[in-house]
Specification:
619 residues, alpha+beta, six-stranded antiparallel beta barrel, two-stranded parallel ribbon, 15 helices, 20 strands, 38% helix, lipid-binding, Oxysterol-binding protein, phosphoprotein
Length: 619
């Protein structure tokens, strides 16, 4: 880490010295060339004067008229040539003087900017240290099972973000409709919504196998985040080596698997006969996947190419899940889940991330597919953008913003969900999510509302009408609904979660050792295991070894590809296929028109045989 930091911080001064010496060298070269031009000019003037004297003497001789005219013309051209060469030398001298004066000016400006940047970095670093010490001094021990998930980011924490692009006016984020609850006491029996949507019957599910409920506490390592992040502005973070100090002891494949924490929503949806009610539960499931992120500001490990992760919960929850890292740059993971309770889910997610100075944007790219076996209903949606704020100073906090459009491709029914971004000036509930479920004709049937970190509710629409125009001249629809019913509610965090990376109950079990898993499974990744055990220095050393091993494999693969191209040009050999994932292959998606990796089968059969001979050695 020290080597990495010194490398980053020591990069600028040698560059400035080399720039200065290069500039001075160029000026010396220009001055030398100007001296050469002056010498040439003197020679031209000397020889030109001699030439003119000779021509004058010839002109004085008695020669035919035609010869005299020609000599006179040559004499005039020689005079013009001497005048032009003098003008060129003067122009070169003026250019050099101008270059020297501007060079001195730009050197002063550059030096001033460099000093200002250094001063700013020192000030920000000092401010971050003071803020950190104040936070430690004011911290109080927490004895509850976890912090309140409804706590709003404090205004003093976000006040350094003023006038930045991630702020939105509160009026812009208000929904384009107004909801009014109808007074209908009889709707409980015939409201058109199943009475078991309150999920209480699933809270008490007991797994058959005893799984772990805690991991070693997170060590208290201090680290200057700014010293590393200051050179990452505007860059793709997946290409920047980071120490494990910024990580949590889970891989991105395991974080992707955490989407299944509330899989009972899909079990319930599979039993729905009404596709619109099913859409409500699918929408709640899509929102529930963000509930684990509210306190999880640490980044997961970037999976190695070919790394896999399985989650076999067939006995407890009826599903089996498999993830594989199918690409390294850009980082992409393919995921497939098969449930015995009537549904299949698959996705390929590519993570794009950009550091913008004060905040980090994480953009998951790719479609999520969900198909129910009985009805054939096929839902497709995409994830929203996640933003990590207060990268430079203050307490890190995460926000989700954007829209999710869920489409049932069999019935053409839709659900539009809006994740409202946090606004300093808004009086709305933080982390608010609103949505409308509509049929294939665009007629709204359900209103969804809640927060992505706590709960989601649905309300059946009984009447709609066009309201009056708002402040911006936009006409809002007024929906009269029945009383809302609970779709999903977040489980409380386990005891001592604040010292265990704020892991949920499911997350605590994801890296638990399992027998007979693939040799490429994330549970077997040594740097991640060392970090979980609190041995961070060893984990950093092991992480560097694994990354160098992966780079060496990539270099060999690139060399093989180059050799295949050379042999192909000579008419020999076969076309080089490149890297091919083990359990997924690329296919064209007929619904989205995109090429994506889908499960080709064979993993669970190999596990039953306990035959992993086909697996690459990545650890």
């Amino acid at each position: 880490l020290e080597a990495h930091s010194s490398y980053d911080s020591g990069e600028e001064e040698p560059t400035s010295r080399s720039d200065r010496s290069e500039l001075q060298g160029a000026l010396k070269t220009l001055a030398s060339k100007l001296d050469d031009l002056c010498t040439c000019n003197e020679l031209i003037a000397k020889h030109g004067a001699a030439l003119q004297r000779s021509l004058s003497e010839l002109e004085a001789l008695r020669v035919p008229l035609e010869g005299s005219e020609k000599i006179k013309a040559v004499n005039e051209r020689a005079t013009l040539f001497r005048i032009t060469s003098n003008a060129m030398i003067n122009a070169c001298r003026d250019f050099l003087e101008l270059a020297e004066s501007h060079s001195r000016r730009w050197q002063r400006v550059l030096q001033h900017e460099r000093e200002q940047r250094t001063h700013l970095e020192e000030t920000i670093e000092q401010l971050a240290k003071q803020h950190n010490s104040l936070e430690r001094a004011s911290a109080k021990p927490e004895h509850q099972s976890g912090p309140s998930v409804s706590e709003r980011p404090r205004k003093e924490e976000a006040s350094d973000e003023d006038e930045d692009t991630e702020y939105f006016d509160a009026m812009e984020d208000s929904p384009a409709f107004i909801t009014v609850t109808a007074a209908d006491p009889s709707h409980g029996a015939s409201g058109g919504q199943p009475s078991d949507w309150n999920l209480e019957d699933h809270v008490s599910v007991q797994p058959r196998r005893k799984r772990r409920t805690r991991i070693p506490d997170k060590p208290n390592y201090s680290l200057n985040l700014w010293s590393i992040m200051k050179n990452c502005i505007g860059k793709e973070l997946s290409k920047i080596p980071m120490p494990v100090n910024f990580n949590e002891p889970l891989s991105m494949l395991q974080r992707l698997t955490e989407d299944l924490e509330y899989s009972e929503l899909l079990d319930k949806a599979a039993r729905c006969e009404n596709s619109l009610e099913q859409m409500c539960l699918v929408a709640a499931f899509s929102v529930s996947s963000y509930s684990t992120t509210v306190h999880r500001t640490a980044k997961p490990f970037n999976p190695l190419l070919g790394e896999t992760y399985e989650l076999d919960r067939l006995e407890e929850f009826g599903y089996r899940s498999l993830c594989e890292q199918v690409s390294h740059h850009p980082p992409a993971a393919a995921h497939h889940v098969m449930s015995q309770r009537g549904w299949t889910l698959w996705q390929e997610i590519t993570i794009a991330s950009k550091f913008r100075g004060k905040y980090l944007s994480i953009m998951p790219l790719g479609a999520i597919h969900l198909q129910f076996h009985a009805s054939g209903n096929h839902y497709v949606w995409r994830k929203v953008t996640s933003t990590v704020h207060n990268i430079i100073v203050g307490k890190l906090w995460i926000d989700q913003s954007g829209d999710i459009d869920i489409v049932n491709h069999r019935t053409k029914e839709t659900c539009q969900l809006k994740f409202s971004p946090y606004s300093y000036f808004s009086r709305e509930v933080p982390r608010k999510v609103t949505g409308v479920v509509a049929d294939s004709e665009g007629q709204a049937h359900y209103i969804l509302s809640g927060t992505w970190d706590e709960r989601m509710e649905s309300a059946k629409i009984v009447q709609s009408s066009r309201g009056s125009s708002g402040a911006e001249g936009k006409q809002k629809t007024v929906y009269q609904t029945l009383s809302p019913r609970l779709l999903w509610k977040k489980y409380p965090l386990p005891y001592n979660a604040e010292n265990m990376y704020y892991f949920s109950s499911l997350a605590l079990t994801l890296n638990e050792e399992e027998v007979s898993v693939s040799l490429t499974d994330s549970r077997l990744r040594p740097d991640q295991r060392l970090m979980e055990e609190g041995r961070w220095d060893e984990a950093n050393t092991e992480k560097q070894r694994l990354e160098e091993k992966q780079r060496a494999v990539r270099r060999r693969r690139e060399a093989d590809a180059s050799n295949a191209v050379d042999e192909g040009e000579e008419g020999e050999g076969k076309e080089y296929e490149g890297y091919q994932p083990l359990w997924f292959h690329q296919r064209m998606d007929p619904l989205t028109g995109e090429t994506s990796f889908v499960y080709k089968g064979g993993y669970w059969e190999a596990k039953e045989r306990r035959d992993w001979s086909m697996c690459p050695d990545i650890f």
